[in-house]
Structures are given as C-alpha cells and as structure tokens.
Amino acid sequence: MIDRKNVVSGGSTGLIERMPCGNVRKCAYPDIQTRKQSLRDLEREFRIYQRLPRQHDRLLQMIKYSPEEGLFLQYMPRGNLREYIQTAVAGITISQRLQWTHDAAEALHLVHSYGIIHCDVKPENFLLDSAYRLKIIDFSGSSFDGILGSAFEGTRFCLPRSWDDESTVRTDLFALGSTIYEIMTGRQPYHDLPDDEVEARYSQQIFPEVQAVHCGQVIMACWRGEINTAKKAMGLIQVEIEKVQ
Question: Protein kinase domain spans which residues (predicted)?
C-alpha cells in the first residue's frame, strides 16, 4: 500500500515513495490500465541495476526488488540537477558546473560500457549526493540486450529521428550535449522556441550558439555526432577543467 503523504515524485513508470528506513521505493501505478506496463518497466530497471556495479559513485545503490513491493533505492535528499540549478540561491561556480558535466559523461560512459542505452539523458535524471556530485537514474525505459527502450528524449534533448528508430549511443550522446548546455547556461537549448521550431532547426543541424559557453566545443561535437563515446567527452571536459584550475 502506497502512503501518499510520503510520495516525493512520480513519472511514466510509477511513484517514488520515501520509506521510514530512509530509502525510496519505486512502485507501479495502482491503476489497472497502466500497471502492467509499469511492472514491466520496473522489472527492466531491476535487471539493469543487477548488471551494473553494485557500488559506484555515479550510481544509486539498489537495495532490493520484488514485483509486489517495487524497487528500493538509495535516497538522495538534494534532489535532481535541473531543480537544483533552477532554485540554487547562491551562485553556482564554473568549477562546479564543469564537475557536473564530467560526472554526467562519466555516468553515461559507465552505462554504455555495460551495453545499456539510457534513452532519456537529461538533468532531471541526475541526482545530487551529499557532496554535490551526480548519480544517473531512471533505467525503466532503457535499452539493453536487444530489448528496445520504452523511453524517448524530450524535444530539446532528442536527435531528430522517427519515433520507431532504435535509440543508440549516438542518441544518448546528443542528449548529453543538451544536458551539458543546460548545466552551463541554466537553460534548455532553444528554451524560448516552440517544440516544432526546435525540431525543424535540429533537423537542419542548426543549433544554439555555444562559442562563449564553457565546454561549447564538447556540446557542439555531441550535437553534430563528432564524438562517438562518452569517454571521449570525458577527456575533452577534463581539458576544460584544467583550464580553470
């Protein structure tokens, strides 16, 4: 039974409930029309956590799982990166933003190295730990072992393609570029344009100006497909970090 007063968020897969033990529980929606798909997505996420390292700085720790109870995960009280950037009272330093970009690329490299395509890379899917470092989350719609992902990026994070095209390392890296853009500028790419205009510009390889943005070359390389691994992005970001040290 879900205690509604302890629900901290909800998404396409189900509800996230804070438990008395201090962890969170991700459980399927009770509605009969969506429950079957929610349970499939939770099972997928459990299988991915089983494949990934049990302990890693860029991952939440999975505590336990059962179809009846749901997926129990480590709780991160600082919330997700997008909300933090939007609500931070004190200014966020360039050094901190650069560290986040490196963390995001590192997390994606880890996921890809285990044969997993995330399918929905964005600042909302990175949580902050007590040291303000990032952990990647939400594998409920991810792709692995030939199982197609059920997730799809939002317009500003999406490499233009058909809805039935398979997600790939390339599509994740495109989304990483948009994620880095948001980390560095505090805004999503083309935040002031309607979705259809953004899609049209992306389809023509017309992207926001990034010449004056830290990691601008990395962002553009992700968008244009000039980077083929997240590890390569990590190396380029490290160069940017060393410039400001």
Answer: 2-245
Residue 7 has pLDDT above 90, yes or no: no
Residue ranges, comma separated, of all CATH 3.30.200 domains in the chain are 4-73
Is the entire prediction scored with pTM above 0.70? yes
Q: Give the sign of the dihedral formed by CA 38, CA 42, CA 45, CA 51.
A: negative
- How many C-beta atoms surround the C-beta of residue 41 within 10 A? 24
Q: Tell me if the domain spanning 81-244 has CATH number 1.10.510.10.
A: yes
**Mean pLDDT value across residues 198-213:** 98
Convert the chain into a string of H (helix), E (strand) and C (coil): CCCHHHEEEECCCEEEEECCCCCEEEEECCCHHHHHHHHHHHHHHHHHHHHCCCCCCCECCEEEEECCCEEEECCCCCCEHHHHHHHCCCCCCHHHHHHHHHHHHHHHHHHHHCCEECCCCCHHHEEECCCCCEEECCCCCCEECCECCCCCCCHHHCCCCCCCCCCCHHHHHHHHHHHHHHHHHCCCCCCCCCHHHHHHHHHCCCCCCCCCCCCHHHHHHHHHCCCCCHHHHHHHHHHHHHHHC
* Residue 168 near residue 208 (C-beta atoms within 8 A): no
Select from 142, 140, 97 the least CA-distant residue to 117.
142
Q: Is the pLDDT of residue 1 over 60?
A: no
- Tokens representing 128 are 């902050």
pLDDT of the residue at 245 = 80
Both tokens of 163, joined, read 């809805």
What CATH number labels 4-73?
3.30.200
